[in-house]
UniProtKB/TrEMBL annotation:
This is Transporter. Keywords: Coiled coil, Lipoprotein, Membrane, Palmitate, Signal, Transmembrane, Transmembrane beta strand. Residues 231-260 form a coiled coil. GO terms for cellular component: plasma membrane. GO terms for molecular function: efflux transmembrane transporter activity. Residues 1-32 form the signal peptide.
Length: 495
């Protein structure tokens, strides 16, 4: 009976040893110690404006927001900047690079096939394990010591993505690609608002120069009149010098304004990316009426409108996928390699049936001892993800702050503008009265003209307020995303 049971016991022992060995190998795999905890993200319901911020008109800016100003010069400048600006070229290049990275990640999970052709002229060592082949004995098939080996065939390999590492890496690359697209929209918004700011800075300065030239003309007439009176001894030179000082002050302001226009043009030229003679002449036009507005609440809508926030959300999503890939690296990986072709020591025998060679090599790789490399990689991926989450949270808070502050500034500027218009009406009454007295012969022309100076000064103040309101409206448009519309945002689920 013992002789009948021995083979059975031996077989059971072999199975037991195999199972035990496999369990030992699996137990020896690297263990996750550095998973960490994901940071919390700001929830949409936490994103709200203060309830006391209200503007004249509700509604979001349009996608091509600058076209509502109905200024062909501005349209042409922004379109040219979006096409040729160096920063736009860089942004589009980054998108192309991200798309290449996605294709590279996808290729890693696909079947890889390559052709192989090898010619190897070799001298066989008589002292090595191929020593017999160093002999020259044609009767035994030995023609050593020189051989010309030829190999021709196809290599193939396939990684079997059981634990999703490749899928996670592809998803991470897609996240970066989507983030780069959103960043391109952010660059477009930055360029378009910068061009509009510079353009209307030029237009505001044009109108300022017109007012200053009017003030200079009044001062020049006053200088002539006071000079004539002083020459006749009818008055002291004090009034003459006061008038001359006003004239020089106006001329000084005109010089400064003309210099500002040159600075604006150079900044615009550099932004568009054109040469010294590539910027067209900008003709003066009237400033548009400011129609800044805020929605009743920003909430989750802000996230879908701001390209910079969308880019950060995609970077956070990509970091989650990087964490998944880092976790999958702890598990066994499988691949299959294969070769089919011909291998012969003599070129004359290369394409014969006897020289056919077929290799099929399934592979199993277990990360047993790695010196902490995998845990360090996972810990680093988690740290990067948490950093991005905090950057996203801060960006959301900054976005709401920017909108709230800009809306508040617009309210203040609007109130100042209304008061300034009333001041102009009051000062204009004095001017009109002096003009009426002059027409009736009750006052001199000098008195009537000098009454215009306070009105011009108040008009300069009103122009400054209008320029500031227009600038803040553009800033608000940027803070609201400039009409950017994203696809439905991905749901962020930390892993």
């Amino acid at each position: 009976m013992s002789t009948q049971r021995c083979p059975r016991v031996s077989s059971n022992l072999r199975r037991g040893f195999c199972v035990a060995g496999l369990l030992c190998m699996l137990a020896g795999c690297a263990l996750i110690h550095e998973n960490g905890t994901p940071y919390a993200q700001i929830q949409p319901e936490q994103i709200n404006l203060a309830s006391d911020i209200h503007l004249a008109r509700d509604g979001w800016p349009a996608a091509r927001w600058w076209t509502h100003y109905r200024d062909p010069q501005l349209d042409a400048l922004i379109d040219r900047a979006l096409a040729d600006a160096p920063t736009m070229v860089i942004a589009r290049t980054r998108v192309a690079q991200a798309k290449s990275d996605v294709e590279l990640a996808r290729s890693g999970s696909s079947l890889q096939v390559s052709a192989l052709a090898l010619l190897n002229r070799q001298h066989v060592s008589a002292s090595g394990f191929l020593g017999p082949f160093a002999m020259n004995d044609p009767a035994e098939g030995l023609t050593g010591p020189w051989y010309t080996e030829g190999i021709v065939g196809l290599n193939a390999s396939l990684n079997i993505d059981i634990w999703g590492k490749q899928r996670a890496e592809i998803a991470a690359s897609l996240g970066v690609s989507n983030a780069r697209l959103a960043e391109t929209s952010a660059v477009e918004l930055e360029i378009s608002t910068d061009v509009a700011q510079l353009y209307y800075g030029i237009q505001t300065t044009y109108q300022l120069i017109d007012l200053l030239e009017e003030s200079r003309a009044v001062a020049a007439f006053a200088v002539e009149a006071h000079d004539a009176r002083a020459a006749r001894g009818l008055e002291a030179r004090t009034q003459l010098e006061e008038a001359r000082a006003q004239q020089l002050a106006a001329e000084q302001q005109i010089v400064v304004a003309q210099g500002q226009i040159k600075q604006f043009r150079e900044s615009l030229r550099a932004l568009i990316g054109t040469g010294p003679d590539g910027l067209p002449v900008i003709e003066p036009v009237a400033l548009p009426r400011v129609q800044g507005s805020l929605p009743d609440t920003l909430s989750y809508e802000l996230l879908a409108r701001r390209p910079d926030l969308q880019a950060l959300r995609w970077y956070v999503q990509s970091s989650f996928d990087r964490i998944d890939a880092a976790k999958a690296a702890f598990y066994p990986s499988f691949d299959i390699k294969a070769f089919f072709g011909f291998d012969a020591l003599h070129l004359g025998d290369l394409f014969t049936h006897a020289s056919q060679q077929i290799n099929l090599i399934p592979g199993l790789y277990l990360p047993i001892f790695d010196g902490g490399r995998l845990n360090a990689n996972l810990g680093g991926a988690r740290a990067v993800s948490n950093t991005l989450i905090e950057q996203y949270n801060q960006a959301v808070l900054n976005a709401v702050r920017d909108v709230a502050q800009t809306g508040s500034r617009l309210q203040v500027l609007d109130a100042q503008t209304q008061l300034q218009k009333q001041r102009i009406d009051s000062v204009a009454f004095v001017r009109d009265s002096a003009e009426a007295h002059y027409q009736r012969g009750l006052a001199s022309r000098l008195t009537a003209l000098e009454a215009r100076q306070p009105v011009i000064a108040e008009q300069v103040s009103l122009l400054t307020l209008n320029g500031q309101m227009l600038s803040q409206e553009i800033v608000l448009t940027k803070a609201l995303g400039g009409g950017y519309r994203a696809d439905p945002p991905v749901e962020l689920k930390p892993r």
